[in-house]
Design goal:
By secondary structure, this protein is mainly beta. It contains one helix and six strands. The protein has a domain of 67 residues. It is 4% helix and 24% strand. The structure holds zinc ion (ZN).
C-alpha cells in the first residue's frame, strides 16, 4: 500500500527554509520554530491548539495574555497563514496566498 516513491524527497519550511518532515497532505507548512514566532495582526504572539483532547478543533490563543482569539489567521515574518485542525491530529498552519500577486486568470470570467 505504501509507495515510498510517492513521498516528496525533501520539504522545506516556507519561512526559514529549514527541512521539515515531508508530508504529502501538507506540502507547505512552517517548521516548529517558525510556528512559535507566529503573531496576530496586531503583533501579539499567538498559538493554536486543538479544542478536544483527542485532537479535534482549532482554537487560537494569545500567548502573552492567555486570551482566546477567534481568528485563525497568523503571520510569520511577512507570510500569512491560517491554522486548521490537522488530519493526523494537532494543528497545521497553511499558507495563505498573497492577494496582491496578480496570478488570477480572468479566463473564466465574462
Ligand atoms: Zn521555519
Amino acid at each position: 500500500m505504501d509507495n515510498p516513491r510517492e513521498l516528496p524527497k525533501r520539504q522545506h519550511c516556507p519561512v526559514c527554509n529549514r527541512y521539515v518532515k515531508p508530508s504529502t497532505r501538507y506540502r507547505i507548512y512552517p517548521c516548529e520554530k517558525c510556528v512559535k514566532k507566529a503573531v496576530d495582526d496586531k503583533g501579539h504572539r499567538v498559538g493554536f491548539f486543538n479544542i478536544t483532547l483527542d485532537g479535534h478543533g482549532c482554537q487560537g490563543k494569545l500567548l502573552d495574555s492567555g486570551k482566546l482569539t477567534r481568528s485563525r489567521i497568523c503571520f510569520i515574518k511577512d507570510m500569512s497563514f491560517e491554522a486548521e485542525e490537522a488530519h493526523f491530529g494537532g494543528i497545521v498552519l497553511r499558507p495563505i496566498p498573497k492577494p496582491n500577486k496578480r496570478t488570477v486568470k480572468k479566463k473564466d470570467s465574462y
